Amino acid sequence: MIMINSFYGTKFTTTQAFDAKGRRQVVSVVKVEPLVVTQVKTLDRDGYWGLKVGIGQKSVKRGAKKAKGPRFLREIKLESEPELKPGDLVPVDAVLKPQDKVKVTGISLGRGFAGVMKRHGFAGGPKTHGQSDRARAPGSIGMRTDPGRVWKGKKMAGHYGAATVTVKNCQVVSVSEADNLLTLTGTVPGFRKGLLKLTKI
């Protein structure tokens, strides 16, 4: 038995499905190809047990031939010595089953430099009564001579998104080993084809 607590996949799409009671729910479909073991971390050599795995395949249209291989390389830590060796495949159904609860970690959509209304949900200023250029402005950012500075953490315009986000308590709805697709309840962070880490809770 493979004692692995997490699995990697790529975001495929977001759609909807109906549960056993006929209620519609949002579901996310994750592409979960078998993980390829590229290296085994040992307690003697590395100080811990673990697996280095390859996820997906690099595009054959891009890069030099010598650069071909897994699209992503990630490491999974283990509590005991694995019964796997380099070259072995780890299918998704060996780790995750329907009804399992998982937390999903990914990189959120990057929105670049955003204003306070988009980034923090500010209401903006009045659009009439003499206002001409304050509709999307942040308003006052400070007081007077004391404190004489802007407080740290003040909500202002800046880079928004492209951050590591974890969504908890997603439930596995179905696992299709033939299509390499896994369905989860709710939405997951990131863009299509973005890497996701699924960890059993």
UniProtKB/TrEMBL annotation:
It comes from the Bacteria. GO terms for molecular function: rRNA binding; structural constituent of ribosome. GO terms for biological process: translation. Residues 122-145 are annotated as: Disordered. Keywords: Ribonucleoprotein, Ribosomal protein, RNA-binding, rRNA-binding. InterPro entries: Ribosomal_uL3, Ribosomal_uL3_bac/org-type, Transl_B-barrel_sf. One of its GO terms (cellular component) is cytosolic large ribosomal subunit. Belongs to the universal ribosomal protein uL3 family. This is 50S ribosomal protein L3. It comes from Candidatus Beckwithbacteria bacterium GW2011_GWB1_47_15.
